């Protein structure tokens, strides 16, 4: 089945630094990947749609300059949280689906803690 | 898209059936999904149903869809302790479209 790998699983960083999270489709190509954010005991909120070879599409209220998305290849999308602050601490999850398939496959998530 | 609502919590005894309910508002929803999330983990796709279907069964899981009322349910037969998790329903308007998630239902299975 389709596998999406996400790294790192968890990261602790200092305020003001930047953190990069990788999302890879291991056994399929994904022209589109999605990035979600999940606060404790809450649902997933879509942050942006990552498009291979073009700019990401951000949801309303998500700062483009703070959450940089790069989808440089058909198997890799990265989310960089720039100048991180404690309020950016959250669980970030990516998802992708093979063309024609039904149902998205999710990565295992990255827990970001900014101290 | 739009809103997707679920009850927050459900507690059942091991061996009983669990029914998790979901309502959505987007009349153009084409696909409806059920995902399971265990603590600290990503989401696992359990099953999905097309909007032109009323019911889908997959082993212990039964999905019922009332399109008129925009109501979706997931029934888990013979619930086990390993079924304890948060269950999210989600809808989309196409296979490549973004998902809108419900608020999640925490299922607790007691002995």
Brief digest:
With 115 residues, chain A is an all-beta fold. Chain A has no helices and eleven strands. The mean pLDDT of chain A is 93.
Overall description:
The complex is a heterodimer of chains A (115) and B (111). The model of chain A has no long low-confidence stretch (mean pLDDT 93). Chain A has strands at residues 4-7, 10-13, 19-25, 32-38, 44-51, 57-58, 67-73, 76-81, 90-96, 105-106, 110-114. Chain A is an all-beta fold and 115 residues long. Chain A has no helices and 11 strands. Helices cover 0% and strands 51% of the residues of chain A. In chain A, a hairpin with a 5-residue loop joins strand 5 and strand 6 (57-58). Chain B is an all-beta fold. Chain B is built from no helices and 11 strands. In chain B, strands 2, 4, 5, 9, 10 and 11 form a 6-stranded mixed beta sheet that branches.
List the helices and strands and how they pair.
The complex is a heterodimer of chains A (115) and B (111).
Chain A: E1 4-7, E2 10-13, E3 19-25, E4 32-38, E5 44-51, E6 57-58, E7 67-73, E8 76-81, E9 90-96, E10 105-106, E11 110-114
Parallel strand pairs in A: 2-11
Antiparallel strand pairs in A: 1-3, 3-8, 4-5, 4-9, 5-6, 7-8, 9-10, 9-11
Chain B: E1 4-6, E2 9-13, E3 18-24, E4 31-37, E5 43-50, E6 55-58, E7 61-66, E8 71-76, E9 85-92, E10 100-101, E11 105-110
